[in-house]
Design goal:
single chain, alpha+beta, OB fold (Dihydrolipoamide Acetyltransferase, E2P), BirA Bifunctional Protein, domain 2, nine-stranded mixed sheet, 14 helices, elongated
Length: 480
């Protein structure tokens, strides 16, 4: 078998032979008259057509050649026959065209003996000469890292993958339409921030040269900005955009991802749960055509009444730990007993780690509620003073979104920020930075508001795939 270098050298010779007779291997204009999809749909009415696309496979030789042409809308077989195709065209295709090339193919509609709709070729011209071969048509790209690095080839040779990305686009189309139909205004908020807000995560830091100012890439999709818009008089807003978290990778976590966050004034987390249940069901039905999914070893149906799970009660039921009364040492001992690793030793991180152990046993759909106030620096407190008005959809052992009744008491918010600053001083890199300009906004007044955020991790769960797999171009390390 020839090496890649040998194959490339052979194709370069074909390229040079085209140029030698004054034919460009990379012309700027195609003579295309039909997309493949349109040609096949109107096959019986079309007498002659020019289709442009990539040659995926070539079969046969001599006086009868078959090839598959793919243009993104579909694939069609083209046929070159000695008695119907000129010697010049037969020779050009045989001597100059390889699998991977883009060509213009002009011909007439032709039904093969086995009934396959095809294009009987009269003329062929080169649009793009490929210098490297395509992956094996039967196996595609087997190496995981290479698949991600050469994602364009992975998508080209994997129909299922292409269809998944079409679904992903529809996922966001449905989300956008759902919110707009209910009166939400789509907005854009900054991706560079002086202080990150809206989540507990380690940010990416960069420098603004013009202002000579250190800034951070946002870790949420404009939470503190959208709440400012509530104070500005907009009753409902949403944004779909990128967020960045400088943290570890896992099947459910990447450092750059797309999220949606929406905010509605004069509403609380009860209203939010009602809307989110309807939103998730709508996405499932319109994008996947079903509400029942099996993922991560769990099966759930979004078209049922969602249970409500009390945070502290569930932890106590599964582990025996009372998160409000038991000491940090007791929690550490339980985590050690359960063989659960944890980062950080402050109470907030220990409780969060304990919950993450428990959640894996819940298939859902369910809403996790009544989180301890310590893990909720931006949410309203319940009347007990210990828990917060937070809700998180639980699916397949994970939280798939987060929302709450937004804290709009400026005095309480300032105190919560101060607690977070103490956590930062203690070495907690995920604690929330204080935004005292946001507190000033609250002092001017913000109406009761419910906010919620979710993202492409929800799509990954519905596909039963790692989140990296549902990203078109995930980050990969450079070649060594």
């Amino acid at each position: 078998m020839a090496s890649i270098e040998e194959l490339r050298a052979e194709r370069v010779k074909k390229l040079e032979s085209l140029e030698a007779v004054g034919k460009s291997a990379y012309p700027s204009v195609s003579k295309k008259t039909h997309f493949v999809e349109d040609f096949l749909e109107a096959f019986d009415e079309i007498k002659e057509a020019t289709i442009a696309g990539r040659v995926m496979t070539i079969r046969g030789g001599g006086g009868l050649i078959f090839a598959d042409l793919f243009d993104g809308t579909g694939k069609v077989q083209i046929v070159l026959k000695g008695e119907d195709t000129s010697e010049t065209t037969m020779a050009f295709f045989s001597e100059k065209v390889d699998a991977g090339d883009f060509i213009d193919a002009t011909g007439t509609s032709f039904l093969t003996k086995n009934g396959q709709r095809s294009l009987l070729i009269k003329e062929v011209s080169m649009l793009t000469k490929s210098l490297l071969p395509l992956p094996d048509k039967f196996h595609g790209i087997a190496d995981e890292e290479l698949r991600m690095r050469e994602r364009y080839l992975d998508i080209l040779t994997n129909q299922e993958l292409r269809e998944m990305f079409v679904k992903k686009a529809k996922f966001w189309d449905v989300t956008r339409a759902f919110l707009k139909e209910r009166g939400f205004l789509e907005v854009e908020t900054p991706t560079l921030e002086i202080t990150t807000g809206g989540a507990e995560a380690r940010p990416f830091a960069t420098h603004h040269n013009d202002f000579d100012l250190d800034v951070f890439m946002r870790i949420s999709v404009g939470e503190l900005w959208q709440k400012r818009l509530m104070a500005a008089g907009f009753p409902k807003t949403f944004e779909i955009g990128r967020a960045y978290r400088n943290e570890g990778s896992s099947p459910d976590h990447v450092q750059e991802f797309t999220n949606c966050e929406f905010y509605m004034a004069y509403a609380n987390y009860e209203n939010g749960m009602e809307l989110v249940q309807e939103l998730y069901k709508t996405i499932a039905e319109e994008v996947f055509g079903t509400t029942t999914f099996t993922t991560r070893g769990h099966t759930f149906d979004l078209n049922v009444e969602w249970k409500r799970i009390d945070y502290a009660a569930e932890v106590k039921q599964q582990t025996g730990i009372d998160i409000f009364e038991d000491s940090e040492d007791t929690i550490k001992a339980k985590l050690a007993e359960l063989h659960v690793k944890y980062d950080g030793t402050n109470r907030e991180r220990l409780i969060d780690t304990l919950w993450k152990y428990c959640r894996k046993n819940i298939s859902g759909p369910a809403f996790l509620i009544n989180h301890p106030l310590l893990v909720a620096p931006l949410a309203k407190a319940n009347e007990d003073g210990k828990t917060a008005q937070i809700f998180q959809p639980i699916l397949a052992g994970s939280e798939i979104g987060k929302g709450y009744s937004e804290l709009n008491d400026p005095i309480d918010q300032r105190k919560r920020f101060e607690i977070q600053q103490e956590l930062i001083k203690g070495g907690d890199e995920e604690a929330m930075m204080a935004d005292y300009d946001f507190v000033e906004m609250l002092e001017h007044g913000m109406p009761p508001t419910c906010g919620f955020g979710f993202g492409e991790r929800f799509f990954a769960f519905l596909c039963d795939k790692p989140i990296r797999e549902v990203q078109m171009f995930p980050l990969v390390k450079p070649k060594k």
